[in-house]
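Ticket #4471: structure output looks truncated?

Reporter: J.K.
Steps to reproduce: submitted the chain below (175 residues) through the standard prediction queue, then opened the result file.
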Amino acid sequence: MIIRPCRYCLPILVLGFATAPAEPARAQEPIPNYQQVISANPFGLLLEFFNAEYERALGESSTGGFGGSTFSSSGEHYVNADVFYRYYPGEGAFRGWAFGGKAGITHVSDSGTYFGFGFDVNHSWLMGRKENFYVGVGFGLKRLFGLDDNALDEDGDELLDFIPTIRIVNVGFAF
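Returned output as attached by the reporter:
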């Protein structure tokens, strides 16, 4: 008995390999469950404004952490250090919208150091193949205590009781 190759086998094999998916089909992968994020604002170095944060998951949709920022302009210098809590109501910790509270100290050159607390609104993304590249933006307001009602800075301008807290764009890594 002579075995003859199938004349349709080669075209069928070529067609099969050409139409096969590049990666094997698999069930939807679970979202990575990172516990910590460290981030900073690299663009602020150009603007003489810098901030950095460490954030840790406290639960499925809440985090706590600490951060600091510094700003210099026209001889004025501002340094801020806060602890914060953020609640992520949507997709879980480090993803989507977050609402939070913060408390800490703020030092304004030639004016003093003051305790304050405030609130902020943020939005965060985890991107990349491993979803561990972090990008976050946010804005908030912090009330300072201990200022005299008529406190003035060195130029004679009245000091504000409220200061904005801005995370222009923080980038970092989740781990």
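Triage note (M.O.): checked the attachment and the full token line is present. The CA atoms of residues 126 and 134 lie 5 Å apart.
Status: closed, working as intended.
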